[in-house]
């Protein structure tokens, strides 16, 4: 295609999950509702029981349930209408950016929260006498807020990179969300630098979390 004839893409078509076209929409709707119900019940139990929400471990568990409950609506509501037909699977360019940011923000915050929960278990098992002093309410709130801040920074780096490139067509994303690997395949420019930065960012975050979890269980 000659540069002068390129038409920039203004929306994408999400192809959805492979080998799921024959499954009824009710199946995905049921999984979606069960996920929300399970997380809501966990959060409700932690909040309603004074003995539980006073403990850091269950506070982190309640926050984890909240994040997971928020993660499902980022993707599933787009899958359900997408099963009805091609026209329902379209997402705007801007919507794709927002979805990618929200997906990486929530998912990476969950990674970092797992790391904090591993450290919490380490303190509770190996240093029980110091546990209540180190894991004070202020420290727990700070750690939870830190996971969200780190997750937002991680997503802020990840989300814009695929969309700094021009997209001239085709616009069919072979996935159920605007994830980075599936979206980068459609770019009509050299993506080596973008891909390297994305992999370095993900690799660094995963490596730090892995090493901290291993250190806490040493």
UniProtKB/TrEMBL annotation:
Give the signal sequence positions: none
Query: Entry's InterPro entries?
Result: GPCR_Rhodpsn_7TM, Olfact_rcpt
- GO BP of this protein: G protein-coupled receptor signaling pathway
Q: Give the chief site where it resides.
A: membrane
Give the GO molecular function terms.
olfactory receptor activity
Q: Which PROSITE patterns has this protein been placed in?
A: G_PROTEIN_RECEP_F1_2
Protein's recorded name: Olfactory receptor 10G7
Q: Where is the G-protein coupled receptors family 1 profile domain?
A: 38-218
Q: How does it sit in the membrane?
A: Multi-pass membrane protein
> What keyword terms does UniProt attach to this protein?
Cell membrane, Membrane, Receptor, Sensory transduction, Transducer, Transmembrane, Transmembrane helix
Q: Which locations, inside or outside the cell, does it occupy?
A: Cell membrane
Locate the transmembrane regions by residue number. Answer: 26-48, 60-80, 100-126, 138-157, 196-214
Q: Name one GO cellular component term.
A: plasma membrane
Q: Does the keyword Transmembrane helix apply?
A: yes
The reply to whether DNA-binding figures as a keyword in the UniProt entry is no
């Amino acid at each position: 295609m000659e540069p002068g004839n390129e038409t920039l893409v203004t929306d994408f078509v999400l192809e959805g999950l492979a080998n799921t076209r024959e499954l009824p929409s009710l199946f995905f709707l049921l999984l979606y509702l069960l996920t929300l119900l399970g997380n809501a019940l966990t959060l409700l139990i932690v909040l309603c029981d004074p003995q539980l929400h006073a403990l850091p471990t269950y506070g982190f568990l309640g926050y984890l349930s909240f994040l997971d409950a928020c993660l499902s609506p980022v993707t599933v509501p787009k899958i359900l209408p997408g099963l009805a037909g091609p026209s329902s699977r379209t997402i705007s360019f801007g919507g794709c950016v927002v979805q990618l940011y929200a997906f990486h923000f929530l998912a990476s915050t969950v990674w970092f929260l797992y790391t904090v929960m591993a450290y919490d278990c380490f303190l509770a098992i190996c240093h029980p006498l110091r546990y209540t002093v180190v894991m004070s309410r202020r420290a727990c709130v700070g750690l939870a807020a830190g996971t969200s801040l780190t997750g937002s920074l991680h997503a802020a780096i990840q989300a814009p990179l695929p969309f700094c490139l021009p997209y001239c067509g085709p616009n069919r994303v072979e996935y159920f969300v605007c994830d980075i690997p599936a979206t980068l395949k459609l770019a009509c420019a050299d993506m080596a630098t973008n891909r390297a930065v994305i992999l370095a960012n993900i690799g660094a975050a995963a490596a730090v979390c892995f090493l901290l979890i291993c250190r806490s269980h040493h």
